[in-house]
Amino acid sequence: MTTRKEVRKTERFHQIPIFSNLAGKEVGEILRITKEQKYKPGDVVFSPNDPCDGFYIILDGRVDIRLSNDKGKTQTTIATLSHRSVFGEMSFLGKRPRSAWAVAVEDTRLNRVDGEAFQASLDRGDVSAYKVIHNFAILIAGRLRRVEDELLDVLQNIGPEKRKEKLAELQEFRHTLYRDWSF
Amino acid sequence: MLSDTSHYFRNAAKVMGIGQRVQRVLERPQRSIKVEITVELDNGDLGTYTGYRVQHNRARGPGKGGLRYHPTMDEDHAIALAGLMTWKTAIVDIPYGGAKGGIDCDPRSLSPREVERITRKFVGEIHEVIGPTVDIPAPDVNTNAQIMAWIMNEYSRFHGFSPAVVTGKPVDLHGSPGREEATGLGVTYCIEELLSRQKTTVAENTYAIQGFGNVGSWLAHHLHKRGGKVVAVSDIGGALYRKDGIPIDDLIEYFTEKRTLEGFPEAEAIPRDDVLYVDCDILIPAALGGVLTKENAKDVKAKIVVEAANAPTTPEADEIFHESGVIVVPDVLANAGGVIVSYFEWVQNIQQFRWELEEIRSKLQRYMRNAFTTVWDLAQRKNISLRTAAYVVAIGRVGKATVLSGL
Questions:
Q1: Does B21 contact A at CB distance below 8 Å?
Q2: Nearest to B392 among A169, A173, A181 (CB)
Q3: Run of H or E including B371
Q4: CA distance A114 to A51
Q5: B376 at A interface, C-beta within 8 A
Q6: Radius of gyration, CA atoms only, chain B
Q7: Quick count: other Cβ atoms within 10 Å of Cβ A50?
């Protein structure tokens, strides 16, 4: 028996991209393994090397994803996510500990999808879980494409092509000195 | 004048077809430092000054260039002037890069003891970035042999006996004979080289010299000694003219005593700036920058202009001279005698062996002759002005040193 409140909740969850093509019943299956958690500004959701406990969906508020290459002395925010966004899926899918910080930047409500329960659902062959995985694939493909575009930008400025051009200028200068302007 | 150097540099770079990146590599200074100098003044006040030292390019050797004490001194000045030294040392092929520096103080309002304290404090701040194999300062505007002696003494406290850390020292304290006359004599050698290519001699020509300071007076002396007729000279107070040549020995004697040209009985007084327009074969501005401009370039009657001063010709005037066939021997070549003898002083300090004046003169002549020949031949071969050719030679030498040592 589904309550009216649960129906409203299901409708809300349909607007979240990774649940967009799930049937109402399937959304219900996922919702059963989630837990709502509240955070204050500055609260850390997880830190690098924390074990993976699932993935998160933002209901309200905003969360910074931060990376660091010097043990946290300087952190760089690579994204600020707001409601309906998902994070923490990289470590879940890759079965690795967390690689980034997730920090609430304002009062934030999150739904955590429990990693073990979701894995169990996959192991049982639940269609709902596979639909979510499929949506993750789409999400990650889009993200990869953006990164490729950015990489192309970077390579065109400092990459092999540009490097060749710069070396050509230097070569040309050397030739100029010895061929055309010797004295 | 600050932008003139980079104007001529870019002109030459364009003629050579050098790309933007390489131009930037050659134009940017390698190191620039700024230090605060606080000293107690004689009246008990605290004086605070800022000192600068810029090493523009050290591809060809340690930095070389003057230290000037002037209230308008700042980093931009130092950078532009350090660049000029890079090109100048390359053109005359002495193994140095370019540097420049100074302090934004006005020595005329300071006692000698205050200047000494400021100088020593400055050396205390920069002694780690100067040195006989790193960067060798020299006298410039408002600095002299005494100040160089203090620098040598203060530097030696930190690093042991090091006369080669500065040049332009007093002859009695590891200075070189011939330093005083070096720039004027270098200009004379330069003129000799030019005239020999026109199948004539110093004695067969007439000269007008603007400025009768260290450079102008030594130049007049050496031209006169070779039979040249100096028909006009000027200083800040006025000018003198005599069609059959001013008796220079008498004039120097008179000037040494009176500190002015005014009232010299053996020549006619003329308006000060007419020195630029008198009838003569060779005009030599040996005082200030920017005296030959697009307004007065047409009034110059001389067929040859030799730049003994730094940047006396504006780029517009330079263009006018080029079009009307007036030969301009550029400052970077003509007045390099000073830095060449500075180099000799450094070599003597390193060798711990003093040369005779005659040896210094003959070596100075060799360096000026080689530099002039290189620039002249290139200008002829490529049909470019002596100035452009000089900058091409500079860029060529600095460029080769840069690519050979690996960028």
A1: yes
A2: A181
A3: helix B357-382
A4: 13
A5: no
A6: 21
A7: 16
Mean pLDDT by 10 residues, chain B (407 residues): 81 92 91 96 95 96 97 93 96 98 95 97 97 97 96 98 97 96 98 98 98 96 98 95 97 95 96 97 94 96 97 95 96 97 98 96 98 97 96 96 85
The structure tokens listed for A90 are 């990289």
Rounded Cα gap, residues B182 and A55, in angstroms = 81
Contacts of A183 in chain B (CB under 8 A): 374, 377-378, 392-393, 396
CA dist., res. B61 & res. A36, Å (int): 70
Write out the E strands in B144-270: 206-210, 229-235, 238-241, 268-270
Q: What span, in angstroms and rounded, lies between the C-alpha atoms of B231 and B268?
A: 10
Distance from CA of A174 to the nearest CA of B (A): 7
Determine the Cα–Cα distance for residues A173 and A158; give it in Å rounded to an integer. Answer: 20
Structure tokens at A19: 């649940």
CA distance B317 to A125: 88
Ramachandran angles phi, psi of B379, nearest 5°: -60, -40
Q: Are B182 and B341 in contact (CB under 8 A)?
A: yes
Active-site residue list of B:
100
Please say whether the beta carbons of B369 and B407 come within 8 A: no
* In the block, residue with structure tokens 């889009």: A142
Residue B61: exposed, middle, or buried by beta-carbon count in 10 A (0-12, 13-18, 19+)?
Answer: middle
Measured between alpha carbons, how far is residue A150 from residues A142, A145, A147, B312 in Å? Answer: 13, 9, 5, 52
Question: In sequence order, what are the residues at sequence separation of 6 or more whose Cβ sits closer than 8 angstroms to the Cβ of residue A71?
Answer: none
Q: Which residue has the tokens 């990376």?
A: A67
Antiparallel, parallel or unpaired: β B327-329 and B206-210: unpaired
pLDDT tens column, A3-18:
777 777 777 777 888 8
Calculate how close chain A gets to B24, using CA atoms only, in Å.
12
